[in-house]
Design goal:
Helices cover 41% and strands 10% of the residues. It has 100 residues and is mostly helical. It has one domain (10-95): Orthogonal Bundle (DNA Binding (I), subunit A), CATH 1.10.30. The chain is flat, with a radius of gyration of 14 Å.
Length: 100
């Protein structure tokens, strides 16, 4: 799949990635992880198998904010890559998946 990648500057990407690293240490994020559920497939996983995913990826202009990050299993995160929500839904539809 060839998705549009925005022209986000390196400085902005570096700043947003730094915010994401800080967010990973927050109690808010630790509580989300402790729930153990992937936002995309709904599966339950040990904390070590979960990652932070930006709903709108940083490279597509997304921000490291509570409203734009979710807990995702590594498999879903790797499949989603740089897709925005509409593209992710299209991917699931084409793949015949039942993930929301």
């Amino acid at each position: 799949m060839d998705y549009f990648i925005s022209d986000v500057g390196e400085v902005e990407l570096r700043n947003e990635r730094a915010k994401a690293r800080e967010m990973r240490h927050s109690q808010w994020w630790k509580r989300r992880l402790a729930e153990g559920r992937c936002h995309y497939c709904g599966g339950e996983f040990p904390v070590a198998e979960l990652t932070m995913d930006h709903i709108v990826p940083l490279i597509r202009g997304g921000k490291s904010s509570k409203g734009n990050v979710v807990v995702a299993c590594k498999d879903c995160n790797n499949k989603k890559k740089h897709m925005i929500p509409v593209e992710w839904q299209e991917y699931l539809h084409r793949a015949g998946g039942d993930e929301d």
